[in-house]
Write a structure and sequence with these properties.
By secondary structure, this protein is mainly beta. It has a single domain, classed as Hypothetical protein, similar to alpha- acetolactate decarboxylase, domain 2 (60s Ribosomal Protein L30, Chain: A), CATH 3.30.1330.80. Strands 1, 2, 3, 4, 5, 6 and 7 form a 7-stranded antiparallel β-sheet that branches. It has a two-stranded antiparallel ribbon with strand order 8-9. Strand 1 and strand 2 form a beta hairpin.
Length: about 140
């Protein structure tokens, strides 16, 4: 993954250009830790060779996994970064387009890039925190 800082101010903006074979969530999480991000948002487009999506099942309080084992276009990838304890945590949703024109989407659990992924991330000077919600079992954003 290559990184270019596009803007330097209170809200620095970065272009993250993922390479063939990069695992998206691993690389993005490592970047968030290296930059010590406490709040950020991002968008991305391009293509993947495979992906694991998740759909939250309220009854089970867990994600049902949806495996995509084919080349797909990233039609939309949006997400944020917030602190979960002392570590930055990525929360991302994705919509993927298949060769037949159908789309699949959900929570992004993991994916491999092919041939590239172009992600623009803007960091915020404030802090966002996640706290465990007892009703859902999810780490949700806390505005307190």
């Amino acid at each position: 993954m290559r990184v270019k800082k596009l803007q330097e101010n209170d809200e620095p903006t970065f272009a993250l250009i993922f390479d063939k074979g990069d695992e998206v969530m691993d690389k993005l999480s490592a970047f968030a830790r290296e930059q010590r991000l406490t709040a950020a948002h991002f968008t991305a487009i391009s293509a993947l060779s495979d992906a694991m999506l998740g759909y939250f099942d309220r009854t089970r309080k867990n994600y049902t996994k949806i495996r995509i084992d084919e080349q797909v276009e990233v039609l939309s990838l949006v997400g944020d970064v917030a602190l979960d304890g002392r570590e930055p945590k990525i929360h991302a949703h994705i919509v993927l387009g298949k060769a037949d024109g159908t789309a699949h989407g959900g929570h992004l659990i993991g994916a491999h890039v092919w041939p590239t992924l172009e992600l623009i991330l803007t960091a915020s000077p404030g802090h966002l925190r996640r706290r465990s919600d007892p009703e859902t079992g999810l780490a949700l954003l806390d505005t307190a």
